[in-house]
Design brief:
single chain, alpha/beta, TIM Barrel, ten-stranded mixed β-sheet, globular, binds iron/sulfur cluster
Length: 241
């Protein structure tokens, strides 16, 4: 079996709060977010034998406690992801998936097979605003919102929701309030968007939102949710009490 492979970070302390993880990137994604920091993975192919990736997991298993599948959208290569998750589990590692939520039934299947511990699900904009969702995802907003809603429901027992904040896109208190009201009572992370890392020239006209701005947004979310964190380049992850 081959994987359309985007790369590996052998040791990461930022992809799963409190864990040391190996991050495996899959190519391709059904969305086209204007800020995608991994946009090089959206086009082109690089196929590698899945055993090569298994051997990387095997080598890392004594130094990390988790494997995180990322991309691109890892659930697009479902058979490959299932096999690697099963391999990681047999190595006694935790498994996390960073997903845009477009494949709810695949997430359900992974949960049913006990192959995933945490699903890191992007809620990119208020689900009540399909037009804005279309703008942030570069896709059919109504369709994506409906899939994300389904994923939230399916994964609610093992979920961390993430929103990445960009000026000129999703950055207002009312955006965060709407999201915090719409999602289940799970951990919610507000991430500092880095426009310089994405393909959109329009977004590059703006600075990244500051830590103080993220703090303000997090205080709004905190009115509805018990577990809120912000993530910035300068300070890493901070819990909002
Ligand atoms: S969902 Fe993620 S990988 Fe896909 S285009 Fe958006 S930011 Fe990039």
């Amino acid at each position: 079996m081959e994987v359309n492979f985007g790369g590996i970070i052998p040791v990461s302390t930022v992809d799963w709060y409190g864990k040391v993880s190996m991050v495996i990137f899959f190519r391709k994604c059904p969305l086209r977010c204007p800020y995608c920091q991994n946009y090089a993975l959206l086009e082109g192919d690089e196929f590698v034998d899945i055993q090569e990736i298994e051997s990387e997991i095997e080598k890392a298993k004594d130094f990390v406690n988790a494997v995180v599948f990322s991309g691109g959208e890892p659930a697009m290569q479902f058979e490959q992801m299932k096999r690697l998750a099963d391999f990681a589990k047999r190595c006694k590692l935790l498994v996390g998936i960073e997903t845009n939520g477009c494949y709810p039934e695949r997430l359900r299947e992974l949960i049913r097979m006990k192959l995933v511990d945490v699903i890191f699900l992007d809620v990119k904009a208020p689900l009540s605003d399909p037009e804005l969702y279309a703008k942030v995802s570069g896709a059919d907003g109504k369709k994506v919102v409906s899939l994300v809603r389904k994923s939230l429901e399916i994964c609610k027992d093992r979920l961390e929701v993430r929103t990445t904040v960009f000026r000129g896109l999703v950055c207002k208190k009312e955006h965060i309030k709407a999201i915090a009201e719409e999602i289940p009572p799970v951990t919610y992370v507000i991430q500092q968007g880095r426009p310089e890392q994405g393909p959109s020239e329009e977004l590059k006209r703006y600075d990244a939102p500051s830590r103080d701005e993220l703090m303000e947004l997090a205080r709004v979310a905190r009115q509805f949710l018990s577990h809120v964190r912000i993530r910035t380049k300068e300070f890493g992850e901070e819990v909002i009490t």
